[in-house]
């Protein structure tokens, strides 16, 4: 099934009844191709989380529409049809370990599949597979999720989403608060899901190095609007613009930017450290001649 | 969103006459008003109280739609009470009778009065909640309870507990929303289905909420002790709410209306 996400002139109004309703999203138009890895960046409060909650039908647009494959959500879409929609779109929230509630790890992971009508035995099979995927020892299955460490809880919560076998996976800062090793493992896991299972990945993050390393497409948001879309080279080649939008630079670009401020222009595509190293050597050679 | 229906703990900052009143005065006037409501027993007395509360709302500068929203969560309670009153109260001329149910002209009138009483009390407490920040409210309660100190009642500790509880209302509401979203993403259907289903889906919401609350409490007590908190007397305050002239004026207006109500009641 084709899972292209089309967002068409979508706006979302947070109306708390007071006299100043706030537009969390303003006229967002965006296409996310099937089987792509998209990063959404922007400073706190720019509307990233609101946008991804629309993709999972947790919020409905105030105006405009959004479609994922054949499913379409408009302001008047009835709540009854949303559950089916959500089955295809997995969502890992910020600090997802907060959602754990069952007595045992395995029961908690089985919760999602059971809700979507899988039988007990199938759900258990899916849960065990998901535990293996996120790197949890099967010995932990009968433990209480509340007895685990922070990093392990995070993996249980992620397994709970992966066990539903979503075709689109949304992750809202999945590695916030984790140690560097867990961070790397989780980012690797997400990339494997993308490559091995052809999942569309939508990553909300502040980690620009991850953005450069993994994503095919980068969406920059500011004040509820999409201000720039492109691949990471296109997004990160203008340090001034990024600073203006309160965004950090990836380490490579930061390094090149500092060099340029010291009078050494390092040109070209700096997606990884090898390209940066090569570019610096070339600059050095020119200097010598 | 579901949570935005609750009016409790939703302070709306402002600069109106009501906002500037001291919290202890607002609390006293609210209690007084509730007492006066139970004195009213005919159309004119209720009409006067309605005018008074409307004047208060206008003076608070908060849009009326907020007050209507505040009633919505309590609507079923109100309807239930009014129906009980109409169906089971005795006296008056019967209009309709069926088994143990009877509707009389008197019971209809009583039902109407109960409805107005509910409305008035909700309106008043909504004004109080919307114009007073939770911390100011706790402070007001502390001031009003001060006389109990002589009986060795731990007024300060109680006020601290109260202000912490109030402070965490919005936090816990946000958390509820987040957890609901997370469980909805895992296929839970909140707010539909049979009663049995609804009780069942409360579990994945309540357990994370409770564990979260306990974590908050633990962190908060650690942070308080790290900053040298002891439950001692003579704690000084950052903001001091003094009884002002506008408090006296407001109170006098309410007393005046109360006297009028007593004069016109049957």
Give the secondary structure arrangement, pairings included.
The complex is a heterodimer of chains A (289) and B (266).
Chain A: E1 5-14, E2 22-32, E3 37-41, H1 48-55, E4 63-68, E5 71-73, H2 82-88, E6 89-92, H3 105-115, H4 120-133, H5 150-162, E7 168-172, H6 180-196, E8 200-204, H7 208-214, E9 217-222, E10 225-230, H8 232-236, H9 239-244, H10 251-261, H11 273-288
Parallel strand pairs in A: 3-8, 3-9, 6-7, 7-8
Antiparallel strand pairs in A: 1-2, 1-4, 4-5, 9-10
Chain B: H1 17-20, H2 23-39, H3 43-60, H4 64-71, H5 75-88, E1 94-98, E2 101-104, H6 105-131, H7 134-145, H8 155-185, H9 195-226, H10 245-264
Antiparallel strand pairs in B: 1-2
Helix pairs in contact in B: 2-6, 2-7, 2-10, 3-6, 3-10, 5-6, 7-8, 8-9
- What strand order characterises the main sheet of chain B? 1-2
The largest interface is: A-B, 28 and 25 residues
Largest sheet of chain A: 6 strands, mixed
How much is the radius of gyration of chain A in Å?
21 Å
In sequence order, what are the helices and strands of chain A, one letter per element? EEEHEEHEHHHEHEHEEHHHH
According to DSSP, the number of beta strands of chain A is 10
The parts of chain A where pLDDT drops under 50 for at least 5 residues are none
Structural category of chain B:
mainly alpha
- What is the fourth-level CATH superfamily of the largest domain in chain A? P-loop containing nucleotide triphosphate hydrolases
Report the sheet-strand fraction of chain A. 15-25%
Q: What name does CATH use for the topology of the largest domain in chain A?
A: Rossmann fold
């Amino acid at each position: 099934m084709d899972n292209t996400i089309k967002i068409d002139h979508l706006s979302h109004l947070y109306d708390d009844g007071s006299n100043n309703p706030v537009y969390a999203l303003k006229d967002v138009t965006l296409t996310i191709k099937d089987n792509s890895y998209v990063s959404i960046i922007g400073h706190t409060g720019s509307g990233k989380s609101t946008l991804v909650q629309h993709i999972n039908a947790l919020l409905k647009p105030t105006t405009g529409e959004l479609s994922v494959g054949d499913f379409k959500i408009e302001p008047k879409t009835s709540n009854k049809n949303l559950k089916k929609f959500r089955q295809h779109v997995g969502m890992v929230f910020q600090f997802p370990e907060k959602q754990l509630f069952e007595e045992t790890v395995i029961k908690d992971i089985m919760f999602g599949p059971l809700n979507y009508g899988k039988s007990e035995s199938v759900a258990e099979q899916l849960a065990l597979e998901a535990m293996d995927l996120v790197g949890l020892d099967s010995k932990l299955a009968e433990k209480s999720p509340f007895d685990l460490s922070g990093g392990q809880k995070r993996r249980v919560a992620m397994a709970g989403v992966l066990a539903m076998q979503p075709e689109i996976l949304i992750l809202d800062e999945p590695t916030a608060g984790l140690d560097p090793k867990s961070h790397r493992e989780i980012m690797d896991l997400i990339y494997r899901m993308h490559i091995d299972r052809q999942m569309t990945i939508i990553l909300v993050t502040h980690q620009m190095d991850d953005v450069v390393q993994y994503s095919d497409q980068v969406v920059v948001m500011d004040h509820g609007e999409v201000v720039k879309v492109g691949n990471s080279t296109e997004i990160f080649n203008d340090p001034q613009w990024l600073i203006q939008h309160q965004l950090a630079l990836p380490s490579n670009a930061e390094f090149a930017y500092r060099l340029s401020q010291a009078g050494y222009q390092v040109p070209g595509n700096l997606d990884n450290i090898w390209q940066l190293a090569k570019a610096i050597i070339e600059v050095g050679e020119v200097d010598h001649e | 969103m579901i949570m935005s229906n609750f009016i409790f703990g939703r302070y709306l900052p402002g600069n109106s006459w009501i906002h500037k009143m001291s919290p202890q005065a607002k609390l006293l006037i609210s209690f007084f008003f509730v007492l006066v409501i139970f004195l009213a027993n005919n159309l004119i007395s209720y009409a006067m109280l309605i005018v008074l509360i409307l004047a208060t709302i206008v003076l608070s500068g908060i849009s009326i739609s907020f007050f209507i929203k505040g009633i919505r969560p309590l609507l079923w309670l109100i309807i239930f009470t009014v129906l009980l009153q109409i169906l089971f109260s005795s006296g008056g001329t019967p209009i309709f009778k069926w088994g143990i149910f009877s509707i009389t002209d008197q019971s209809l009138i009583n039902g109407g009065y109960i409805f107005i009483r509910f409305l008035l009390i909700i309106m008043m407490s909504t004004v109080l909640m919307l114009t007073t920040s939770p911390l100011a409210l706790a402070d007001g309660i502390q001031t009003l309870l001060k006389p109990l100190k002589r009986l060795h009642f731990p007024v300060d500790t109680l006020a601290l507990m109260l202000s912490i509880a109030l402070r965490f209302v919005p936090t816990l509401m946000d958390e509820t929303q987040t957890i609901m979203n997370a469980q909805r993403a895992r296929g839970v259907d909140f707010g539909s289905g049979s009663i049995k289903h609804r009780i069942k889906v409360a579990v994945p919401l309540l357990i994370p909420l409770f564990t979260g609350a306990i974590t908050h409490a633990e962190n908060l007590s650690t942070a308080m002790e790290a900053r040298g908190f002891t439950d001692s007397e003579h704690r000084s305050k950052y903001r001091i709410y003094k009884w002002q002239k506008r408090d006296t004026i407001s109170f006098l207006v309410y007393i005046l209306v109360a006297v009028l109500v007593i004069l016109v009641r049957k």
